[in-house]
Amino acid sequence: MSDELDYSNIPTDELIQQMQDDLYDGMVNEVVAGTNELLGRGLTPYDVLTKALVGGMDIVGADFRDGILFVPEVLMAAKAMKAGMEILRPLLAETGAQQIGTMIIGTVKGDIHDIGKNLVAMMMEGAGFKVVNLGINNDADKFLSAVREHTPDIVGMSALLTTTMPYMETVIKALKEQGLRDKVIVLVGGAPLNEAFAEEIEADAYCRDAAVAVETAKKLISIKRSKS
Ligand code: B1M
């Protein structure tokens, strides 16, 4: 923890605010300390994640968009976010839920954003899915090989750039060409997407956030299994 701050004396609402500021400033140690402090106060891992970490990243996103922050600062914020997520990851995965299916998930070719995709992976693990995380910048062949190797129930794709989201359709077409499309549920997500886009590229669903991804995955798996 930083010398200037004694988090134990800060009321929870202020601490959440403080953590958002720390994340904005890319202060890894402070974000780690704040995450542990909030957990110690009994906040759920999900609340720490959404209120403190995602809340902070939302402000970073707005200021990046408005030209107040630049790539180096955003990278530092991302590093702090990841440090907090690393603490929460095992806790979110520790729900004791039965394994209900397998998902492969990756960010598509040309795109290196991975925070949201990793968050979806964490929440899916927490909900009882086995998750194979393919990382960033995945071309169609990587998705196809992973489908062949892991025979997942779900293929998840993430894209954060308007220039990379069309690549999702390339992956879906490749799945069709290889006769694999009907074997998997395709879920897509990422800030620039919407339902109309998902429909247009013939994905099974667009997921606005990680919680929606979990709900949608469970719902579509149960529909698929009830038909087979
Ligand atoms: Co970039 N970036 N970035 N960036 N970046 C955005 C996306 C941008 C919107 C910022 C802006 O201008 N406001 C903008 C895109 C504009 C556009 O295309 N319309 C942008 C840009 C332009 C760029 C660069 C081109 C900048 C440059 O180099 N000049 C460059 C591109 C690099 C590349 O990919 N080739 C770039 C680089 C970077 C960093 C490397 C600095 C860093 C990424 C670090 C990392 O991920 N390791 C970065 C960041 C951090 C952002 C912002 C600020 C935050 C993204 C984030 O992590 N959000 C972002 C602004 C924004 O989104 N408001 C921005 C938090 C995360 C929890 O949310 O990712 O939306 P999100 O995920 C959510 C949902 O979308 C959904 O669930 C998640 C959790 O709830 N979801 C899924 C996501 N994936 C899913 C998959 C699913 C389901 C749900 O599958 C089933």
Topology, element by element:
Blueprint lengths: L11 H13 L3 H13 L4 H21 L5 H22 L8 E8 L6 H12 L2 E10 L1 H11 L3 E5 L8 H11 L7 E5 L5 H6 L4 E3 L2 H18 L1
This protein binds CO-5-methoxybenzimidazolylcobamide.
What would you note in describing this structure?
By secondary structure, the chain is α/β, with parallel strands linked by helices. It has helices at 12-24, 28-40, 45-65, 71-92, 115-126, 140-150, 167-177, 195-200, 210-227, and strands spanning 101-108, 129-138, 154-158, 185-189, 205-207. The protein is built from 9 helices and 5 strands. A 5-stranded parallel β-sheet has the order 2-1-3-4-5, with helices on both faces. Helix 1 (12-24) runs antiparallel to helix 2 (28-40), helix 2 packs parallel to helix 4 and helix 3 (45-65) runs antiparallel to helix 4. CO-5-methoxybenzimidazolylcobamide is lined by residues 54, 57, 60-61, 64-65, 71, 74-75, 78, 105, 110-117, 119-120, 156-158, 160-162, 187-192, 207, 209-210, 213.
| Terminal residue distance | 53 Å
What percentage of residues falls in helices of 4 or more residues? 55-70%
Strand order of the largest sheet: 2-1-3-4-5
Mean pLDDT: 93
**Total DSSP helices:** 9
- Uncertain segments are none
Number of strands: 5
Largest sheet: 5 strands, parallel
Number of domains: 2
- Cofactors, ions, other ligands: CO-5-methoxybenzimidazolylcobamide
Structural class: alpha/beta
Q: Would you give the CATH topology of the largest domain? A: Rossmann fold
* Rough outline: globular
> What is the CATH homology-level superfamily of the largest domain?
Cobalamin-binding domain
The amount of beta strand, in percent, is 5-15%
- CATH architecture call of the largest domain: 3-Layer(aba) Sandwich
Radius of gyration: 18 Å
